[in-house]
Design a protein that fits this description.
Elements: E1 20-26, H1 31-40, E2 46-51, H2 58-64, E3 68-71, H3 80-94, E4 100-105, E5 108-110, H4 114-124, E6 128-137, H5 144-152, E7 158-159, E8 167-170, H6 171-176, H7 188-198, E9 202-213, H8 220-241, H9 246-259, H10 267-278, H11 280-288, H12 290-302
Parallel strand pairs: 1-2, 1-4, 2-3, 6-9
Antiparallel strand pairs: 4-8, 5-9, 6-8, 7-9
């Protein structure tokens, strides 16, 4: 398969009107949600917005945009995975002929040519369960933290282990593994992709713009909280996948080892190793990020199982 380069329009894909449905999830996204819904207008047979306990006017904005709205009940913890599953359930019930679902976070804008590019890859690779592309930050120069996100989104091209929250998924594959694990507060995409790979499906990252994300991180505390959530997700992922995911084992062990006081004098070595590939800003915050990652892991391990469902937000 030859990936579609950034900047070259994808070949238009003829398809029945209901073959693709769009799920947008959000919580207190405000104007970002309106922008997000406008970006997907006309991109699928139906657009469903799933709200996770917003206290702002998100539901009203979605209704005004013409999206179908699902409001999650507060009887269970809110998670992105629960929202995406609820949206997928709505589409499967109401959209005859559905074959693919485009998932999009409510703080993201979908690239106009993305779905055609992703469908082209789906047609060329029948075993492809997920196709994702380049996610970019809308305002990378607004803060160091936004810039870090933009670097983070620049992932390798080809058949990959996992995807992010924005992705086109084949419905039959999604059904094959039972969708997202709704109890996960983060890391639900690696968990889903792990199960898809075990079932014989593949995950594809193509060289095409997919979405623009608004991290809206202006403060160090937000950056710390986001990394703490990531560490929590790593520990929870390790408890679920164990030896089946050696890469995750290495990441969890690395966070622990580099966070121990005896390792701090050797941080310059780690910094220099990362600097060669990604530059000084990224190297600095990846090195420092070992601490909140380790904190998140400890948060997971020290809590009784019945309490392991907090909603960790950074915005």
């Amino acid at each position: 398969m030859i990936p579609t380069p950034i900047g070259r329009p994808a070949r238009p894909v003829a398809r029945p009107p209901n073959v693709v449905g769009v799920v947008v999830i959000g919580r207190n996204e405000g104007p970002r949600l309106s922008d997000s819904l406008r970006s997907v207008a006309g991109r699928g047979g139906a657009i469903v917005y799933v709200d996770s306990g917003s206290s702002d006017d998100s539901v009203a904005r979605a209704e005004q945009a013409g999206a179908q709205v699902v409001v999650l009940a507060a009887d269970r913890p809110f998670t992105a995975a629960r929202g995406r599953n609820a949206g997928a359930d709505w589409l499967q019930t109401h959209l005859v002929g559905l074959e693919f679902i485009q998932f999009l976070d409510g703080d993201c804008l979908l690239d106009p040519a993305w779905i055609d590019a992703a469908l082209q890859t789906m047609a060329e690779a029948p075993d492809a369960a997920v196709v994702c592309g380049r996610r970019r930050e809308r305002f990378p120069d607004a803060s160091w933290y936004n810039r870090l996100c933009d670097i983070e989104w620049d992932t390798p091209i080809g058949i990959v282990p996992t995807c992010g929250g924005d992705a086109l998924m084949r419905l039959s594959a999604f059904q094959d593994v039972g969708g997202f694990a709704t109890e996960l507060i983060a890391g639900e995409e690696p968990d889903l992709c792990h199960r898809l790979r075990r079932a014989g499906w593949t995950i594809h990252r193509i060289d095409h713009d997919m979405s623009r994300h608004d991290a809206a991180m202006m403060h160090f505390a937000q950056w710390w909280q986001r990394n703490r959530r990531s560490g929590y997700a790593m520990a929870e992922g390790l408890s679920r996948r164990g030896r089946d995911d050696p890469r995750l084992i290495r990441r969890v062990a690395s966070n622990i080892l580099w966070s121990l006081p005896f390792a701090w004098p050797f941080w310059p070595i780690l910094w220099l190793m990362i600097l060669r590939k990604h530059g000084g800003l990224y190297a600095t915050f990846v090195t420092l990020g070992k601490l909140p990652h380790c904190q998140g892991q400890i948060d997971f391990w020290r809590q009784p199982p019945a309490q392991r469902r907090p909603l960790i937000e950074y915005k």
